[in-house]
Amino acid sequence: MAIEVKLRRDTANQHSTFTGAIGEVTVDITNDTLRVHDGVTTGGHRLATFGDISQYTANLLAVTTNIVPVSNTSLDLGTAEKSWRDLYLSGNTIYIGDQTITTTANTISIQRADGADGVRLNIDSIRIGNSSTGTVLKSTTTGEITSYVPTTGAETSTNFANVSIQTLILQNVLGTEYGGTGLSSFTPNGILYAANSSSLSQATGLTGQILQIASDGTPTFDKLDGGDF
């Protein structure tokens, strides 16, 4: 057979003048809650109801103070499953660890928060211009930088108005169509001549020889003795 347990009960007004024994629990029939007594406090300690707690739910539509976590680097804003959508800021700086992202006019700067050098930006590609006329700079699997049109994927050439290069090292021979010689080496004391309309060749001679034109028009070094040209 079930045992029915009843606690002493009364109104909130009556509790305001009542001091219960240590550990005693009474029922507040005005607020439909319990009061825990310690033998000293008049009225005891009222337990909060769901209605009491719900009225203190944070209203994020009317924040009037800074939102600060209880301790440093202990809480997150959103989760991987439930993320925030857009972030609107009127300030000029975002702090991410030891780095800052700042804006001034139409410039975005990424730098260390202490102003020191050493920021490294790791990205797959950079788009310059808009989606229809812009160019994408991207690193290849061999560490080279190539540019291509994002709408077609076709590689493009890049034009520069003025470029100052102290040391230029080419992996391949620079062809004559790009202003080069098309040759990877030269013979000492040799001369260059147009072998045809798109390539250069070399001619070299020996002591006492002079440069002459052969019957096919090719510059040739030989003795001036009426030899076969």
Total strands: the figure is 14
Q: Quick one: biggest sheet?
A: 4 strands, mixed
CA-CA gap between termini: 132 Å
Number of helices: 2
Secondary-structure class? mainly beta
SS strand fraction = 15-25%
- Return the CATH topology of the largest domain: Seminal Fluid Protein  PDC-109 (Domain B)
What is the strand arrangement across the widest sheet?
1-2-3-4
CATH architecture of the largest domain: Ribbon
Low-pLDDT segments, ≥5 res: none
What gyration radius follows from the Cα positions, in whole Å?
Answer: 43 Å
Percentage of residues assigned to helices: under 10%
Order of helices and strands: EHEEEHEEEEEEEEEE
Global morphology: rod-shaped
Q: What's the average pLDDT?
A: 86
Q: Compute the number of structural domains.
A: 4
Structure description:
There is one protein chain. The chain is built from two helices and 14 strands, in the order E-H-E-E-E-H-E-E-E-E-E-E-E-E-E-E. Strands 1-2-3-4 form a four-stranded mixed β-sheet. A three-stranded antiparallel β-sheet has the order 5-6-7, with no helix packed on it. A three-stranded antiparallel β-sheet has the order 8-9-10, with no helix packed on it. The chain has 229 residues and is mainly beta.
